[in-house]
Write a structure and sequence with these properties.
- Two copies of one chain form a homodimer.
- The first copy, chain A, is α/β, with parallel strands linked by helices.
- In chain A, about 30% of the residues lie in helices and about 25% in strands.
- In chain A, the strands form five sheets. A five-stranded mixed beta sheet of chain A has the order 6-5-4-8-7. Chain A has a five-stranded parallel beta sheet with strand order 11-10-12-9-13, sandwiched between helices.
- In chain A, helix 1 (about 50-65) links the parallel strand 4 and strand 5.
- Mean pLDDT of chain A is about 90; it is low at about 1-10 and about 405-420.
- At the A-B interface, helix 6, helix 9, strand 13, helix 10 and strand 14 of A face helix 6, helix 9, strand 13, helix 10 and strand 14 of B.
- Chains A, B: Pathway: Cofactor biosynthesis; adenosylcobalamin biosynthesis.
Chain lengths: ~425, ~425
């Protein structure tokens, strides 16, 4: 465990060197090289006037005894009162690392294995070295150790901790379902993950792509908040986490609750995916050729008044609409209501596409009209795309024109833009 | 050429048989099998009372002489006046194929190598056999041949044509640019294409994925209509065509003009891709966590009044907006105007994401606010995402909440829907 890893540098298929990434000292094999991560934090305490040689000898001896490399020391840490103690400041300088300090209150709040009354009296915290090493949430490797000068009492203490690596949360869209609509980037992120968090049915969809040993934290429907919190908490522990969602994980899905939880102490990577509106559009023809809006009809998340206002806006502004979550067993009047709002501004023959489980084995695609759509044929696995006044059924395909003014227009710069800007 | 192809059936890596798909007769090798496509059309002419044996002998002899298999005959074809001529009807019956007939006007309109006055007088077209074989746009393999009965004049003619295979137009979204955001399905379609049609800069992006020999029809900016027409025309010739676009080819791109041209005589396959709004969203955080609209600010394609109406609608209904084609050299007032419309309903600190060339080498990502955005930093390679009143900058990431009523809600069916419906 810890900050140890190994990789191979290869050229034309041959191994030329073995690189190890570790803060531990060890005998290198002939073809090995080592990289030192800045992973160690050394907590330091010292009496007033402690000589730099004593502090430095303590630190170096402690690291050597523990089999740890001084090159992996990221910083020295101590209490505010010792911020200008010459022996500590100079030790940091000779090691070439920064010195950071904490208030007695911050340090007193850190549970440590070896508290003591002496520093409590002197600087207001029962531990300096151990607490300063641990205060940022690291793992204690060497407990408090005293210096051993010849012929007088020790004037310095130190403790060594390994800080957790920075966690990484990848929010991964799996696409609409078919394996060949999963992007290579999504696949790579799944392979990279040490911890996978997701809805059980989506986990099943990609379980074969995970590395052996990946920790899978799957949960059932309704546990969205819990999944978001779990993913962020695992990343905070320094794990490489993949949080999965179908389609694009940022669209009505897990990215939003997870990022609402995440602070800047973890890295976040979003992998976009083919969302249901696009998957349905490709099956129907080209309904999204011009402006289009995605609206969820689920009024569990959003007051119906807000949804209705958005549907009315789309109707009045003649925007193509894709409805997500259009209808469920207990929620049956919202879709007819939404369609009737659109029908106030669009002809009965306006094309409507009904796509269920796009790209999955049981996919179904139907092209109908605003007048003819039977809402009873729609369920939660379906997205419904309603054309605008320009949308046409052309040879059984649903097409919304881009408009063709460009044909006459000599401004080729704009043509570039029109396509390249997408 | 023609309807000939070969493939291998393999089991555990071993070749077990070689299957050929062809309408040609030939000696089979020991481990070969053959599949017969229904590719041949036999045009037939006959005098009144022509015996079935004479008609059948003519057809079978003609096919044999040309090295063509009778099992590949899809149908017999003649003029309407011969629809009930017993020799022809029975020949079709014995061959097990349908008989189709055409009006003299339809046949007279087909250019043929061997027109004649006799049928023109008799049935009103200068060719029956050749014209009937060719009327659906097939390729003539055997010109008009007469029967050779012993001791009397010929009473039957025939000609053989091979019909063009049904063309296939794949409209392929390449994603935002990075190779690892190109879906495997898109890659497969590029490999499958015999003809590739696209904007030169997008062709450059994927040229290495094409099979050797793929015909590449690339054109420059401003030739959108021409590309659409070319792609459809190539498919109509029976080709396997891939028409490419960046992002999702159905969003402000080539699918719409191409499908406006296409009729039902070709197959169309759409391959959805990661559109710019999604690629930008993944980089920004989770701005599209709830309802969102894509609006193009290019008023070359659309009157500004329509665009303004749509922006106003998004503003009033509090919908997150992604602007495509937001600004170009000659078009600089539209974005500020659109932002000012949104600002009438949203606070100055509303998060705004500015993403240029998402996933490409020169990608840039900026998170700013409605008040602070400098439109001069935006160009046609950029998409601009404006949050709604609920959107927040959380730890430097742009997040639009889904809302969390589900936490309290016991209706787990709806939870399923909320995520699975995407």
């Amino acid at each position: 465990g810890g900050a140890t890893g190994a990789g191979e540098v290869t050229g034309s298929g041959e191994v030329t060197a073995r690189i190890r990434l570790t803060d531990r000292t060890f005998g290198l094999a002939p073809e090995e090289a080592v990289l030192r991560p800045p992973s160690l934090i050394v907590g330091v305490g010292a009496s007033k006037g402690a000589p730099v040689d004593e502090v430095l000898a303590l630190i170096e001896g402690t690291l050597a005894d523990a089999g740890l490399s001084p090159r992996s020391v990221a910083r020295l840490a101590t209490v505010d009162a010792k911020a200008e103690e010459p022996g500590i400041v100079e030790a940091a300088g000779r090691l070439g690392v920064p010195l950071v300090t904490y208030s007695p209150e911050q340090l007193a709040a850190v549970p440590v294995p070896n508290p003591s009354d002496a520093p409590l009296t002197a600087v207001g915290t029962p531990s300096v070295a151990e607490a300063a090493a641990l205060v940022e949430g690291a793992q204690l490797l060497v407990p408090k150790t005293k210096s051993a000068p010849e012929g007088r009492p020790a004037m310095a203490t130190c403790a060594v901790a390994r800080r957790a690596p920075r966690g990484r949360l990848a929010v991964v869209g799996l696409g609409p379902g078919a394996r060949d609509l999963l992007t290579p980037r999504a696949k790579d992120e799944l392979r990279r993950a040490a911890v996978l968090v997701g809805l059980d049915q989506y986990v099943d969809q990609i379980r074969d792509l995970l590395r052996p040993g990946t920790v899978v934290l799957e949960s059932g429907l309704g546990a969205e908040e819990e999944r978001a919190r779990t993913a962020v908490a695992e990343a905070r522990k320094g794990q490489a986490v993949a949080l999965i969602g179908s389609g694009d994980a940022g669209v009505y899905a897990m990215a939003s609750p997870a990022l609402a939880e995440a602070s800047d102490d973890i890295d976040v990577v979003g992998v976009p995916g083919v969302t249901a509106a696009l998957a349905a559009g490709a099956l129907l023809g080209a309904p999204l050729g011009h402006d289009h809006v995605s609206i969820s009809l689920s009024d569990l998340h959003t007051p119906w008044e807000v949804i209705e206002r958005r549907v009315r806006a789309a109707a009045e502004a003649d925007i193509v609409v894709t409805f997500y979550n259009p209808r469920s067993r207990g929620r049956d009047w919202q879709l007819p209501k939404a369609l009737s709002l659109l029908a106030e501004h669009r002809a009965p023959r306006t094309p409507v596409g009904v796509v269920r489980n796009a790209s999955r084995a049981d996919e179904s695609v139907r092209l109908t009209t605003l007048a003819a759509l039977d809402p009873a044929t729609v369920d939660m696995m379906t997205v419904v795309t309603v054309g605008n006044t320009a949308t046409r059924d052309i040879a059984g395909r649903m097409v919304t024109p881009r408009g063709y003014r460009w044909q006459q227009d000599p401004d080729t710069k704009e043509h570039a833009a029109a396509e390249a800007g997408r």
